[in-house]
Amino acid sequence: MHSGPDTTTAPSGAAASARREAERPETPSGPAVPSAGAPAAEPGAGRRPNRAVRAVRAVRRGAPRTALAVGAGLALALAFPPYGVWPLSLVAVAALSLLTRGRTARQGAWTGFVFGLPFFFLLLRWLSVIGHDAVLGLAAVEALFIAALGAGLAVTSRLPAWPLWAACLWVAEEWARDRQPLGGFPWGRLAFANTGSPFTPLAALGGAPLVTFAVALSAVLLASAGAAVWTLWRTRRTAPAGVTDPSGEPETAGDAAAAGGPAAEGSLAAESDPAARDEPGPGRGRLRAALPAVAAAALALATGLAGYAVPVPTAAADTVRIAVVQGNVQQPGMDFLGRPMKILDNHVEATLQLAEDVAAGREQQPDLVVWPENASDLDPFRYQEAYDRIDRAVRAVGVPVLVGALVDHPEQEGYVENQGIVWDPETGPGASYTKQHPVPFGEYVPYRDQLSKIITRLERVPRDFYPGEKTGVLRTGPADLGDVICFEVAYDEIVRDTVNAGARALVVQTNNATYGRTGQPEQQLVMSKLRAVEHGRAVVTAATSGISAIVQPDGTVSQRTEEFTQDVITANLPLRDDTTPADRVGAIPEWALAIVGLLSCAAAIVVRRRGRTDQRGQQ
Questions:
Q1: DSSP per-residue string spanning 37-51
Q2: Radius of gyration of the chain (CA)
Q3: What is the pLDDT of residue 599?
C-alpha cells in the first residue's frame, strides 16, 4: 500500500462507478435498487442470451485475434524455402506468443490452430500434386500440435520467466511432431527455417532442437520487450492528472516544466537545488519501468549472437573425388516413371558420358559415383536387362557406384525395399542400405484394407515398402559414406546414428520428381545444410531430377544442379572423423527442454488452482 499524504489525483471513472454502485440501497432480496433517473429495464433484459447468440458474440470478439494469428502463420511459412525469409520466423513466433499471452487454454488452443493451419497449408502446398485435400488433411493434423502449443503458451504466460517456458514448449511441440502419428512428420521445424541465420551454428552444440529453442527464445524475448514498451506507453498516456510516471509517483515541478505543464513555475529553482536532485523522482521511475524491456531485448540479442561464438569444425582428415549423376525423369508429377527403365537409361547414359569425358581428359577420374534414389526403377536382381545396364555403366566409369534401386524383399512376399547398393566394377553388387523410415501413404499404406475402400487413390501405392533395421554406413571405394534416403534427412536420430556409426561424409539419395518445381526440393536441401553443420560432415544430395548438391561441413552449398535437367557434378569431398558435441550428447538437449516445457504447464495449472482455492477461502 502507498503510505504518506494522498495525491491530488482524481479517482478514475471505473473506481467512481464502482463506488456509486456500492452506495446504492439494496432490496431485501439482494439486488441494488436503480437510481431514480435510471431508465426502466426492458423486458427480458436480465435474461442470459442463448448459446447461439453467445457463440456469435465470441466469434466477433475473437475475429481480430484470429485474423492476426492467420497472418502470423502465413508469415512463418514465408520463412521457409522457396521464400527463405528467415527473420519472419522470429516475427511469427513473437506474434503467437503475444496473441496467446494472458488467454485461457481453450483460447490459446484456438489461436494456435488458426496459426498452424495456414502455416502448414502454405508450407506443404507441394502436396497439391496428389490433391488439395491431401494438403488440407495433413495441414490440419499438424496444426493440432500447434493448437496444443498455443494452449501451453497461454497457461504458462502468467508464470515468471514466461519466455523461457515458451521456448521449451516449442521444442516439446516439435519433439511430439517428430514422432507421432505414424512415425512423425518433422517438416516445418523452426530450425529448418534458420539454416543460414546467426542461429545455425548452434546445431553443432545441440542439434536442430537447440536451434529451435534459441529462435523461439529470442522471438519471445522480443515479444516480451515489445509488450513492456507498449505497457509503458499506455501507462503514460492514460495516467490521471498529476501522475505521468509509470511507477505511480506524482509529477514534480521539474517534470511539469519539461512538459510545459501547469507546474512549470519555480521548476528551474527546484532543478538547481541539490537536495531536490538527490530525491527519487519520476525520471528514475521511468527508468525502472523500462528496465524489463531493455533486459528482454538485450537477452534476445545475446541469444541471437550466441551462434557466432560456436566453432564449426571444417578441417578435413582426407578428401575423395566424387561424381553425382542426375539422370532426370521423363516427366514431373505422379507419373514421373514413364516407360519402364526410362529413368535407369537416363542415369546409364549420363554415367557413360562421364566415362567418355574422363577418357578424353575433360574430367578428372572420380573415386566413386553416386546415383540417386530410384535410379533403377526395376529390381536389378529380378530383371536381367536392368542388371546388365547398371553393370555396363559401372564398368565403363571404372569406380564403385552407389546405386538407388527398388528391390523385392527376399522373405516378405509383396513387400519392396528402397535401397542404396554399392556396385563394384569388378565384383558387382555388394553392401546395401535399406531405408529405415518409409513415408506413410507414399511408400506404404497404413490400415490398407480399411482406407483403400474409402480413398481410391491409395491404389497408386500397390506395394508397401519394408523398413530397414540398420544404419547406412557403406564402404564405397576409399570412403565410408553414410547413406540417408530422401525424407530421412529430416529425422534427427537417423542421421545422428549414421554419423556415430562411422560415416565420414553423408549422402542423401532422393527422388523429388513428383514434387518438382513446387518448393519441396529446396525445403529438403536446407535440411542437408543444417545436418552438415550439426555433424561437421559434408553432405552430398543426389536427386533424380534435382536438386542435386554438394554441401560443405560449414553448411555452404558449393555446387548444385537445376531441376529437370540431366547433369553431373564433380567435387573433392572432405572426409572427417571428429564428431561434434551434438553427436555426443544426442537427444539429451531435446528431451530436457521438452520436459521442462511440459513441467512448466503443470506448474502453471497448479499455481492457478491454488489461486482459486485461496480466493474461495477469503470469501
A1: TSPPPPTTTTSPP-H
A2: 32
A3: 98
Q: Which three cell numbers stand for residue 113?
A: 490452430
Residue 243, pLDDT score: 52
**How much is the pLDDT for 241?**
53
Q: Which of 168, 435, 488, 563 is catalytic?
A: 435
> Please, are residues 323 and 559 in contact by the beta-carbon 8 Å criterion?
no
Confidence (pLDDT) at 196: 96
Instruction: Identify the active-site residue in 142, 174, 251, 373.
Output: 373
**562: amino acid identity, one letter:** E
Task: Record the cell numbers describing residue 299, joined without a space.
Answer: 537477452
pLDDT of residue 163: 97
Residue 486 known to be catalytic? yes
Residue 488 is given by DSSP the state: G
Amino acid symbol at 239: A
* C-alpha distances out from residue 592 to 85, 363, 599, Å: 29, 50, 11
Angle at 53 between CA 48 and CA 58, to 5 degrees: 105
Closest CA to 95 of 209, 227, 186: 227
Q: How far apart are CA 213 and CA 576, in angstroms?
A: 28
Within 8 A by CB and 6+ apart from 478, the residues are 320, 367, 368
Beta bridge partners of 483: 507
Is 601 annotated as catalytic? Answer: no
Residue segments in the chain with a per-residue pLDDT below the cut of 50: 1-38, 244-279
Instruction: Give the whole-angstrom CA distance, residue 556 versus residue 352.
Output: 30
The pLDDT value recorded for residue 55 is 74
Sequential DSSP letters for 381-416: TT-HHHHHHHHHHHHHHTS-EEEEEEEE-SSSTTEE
- Beta bridge mates, 539: 506, 551
| C-alpha cell belonging to residue 126 | 507441394
Three-state secondary structure call for residue 465: strand
Please pick, among 142, 443, 486, 529, the residue that the annotation labels catalytic.
486
Is 435 catalytic? The answer is yes
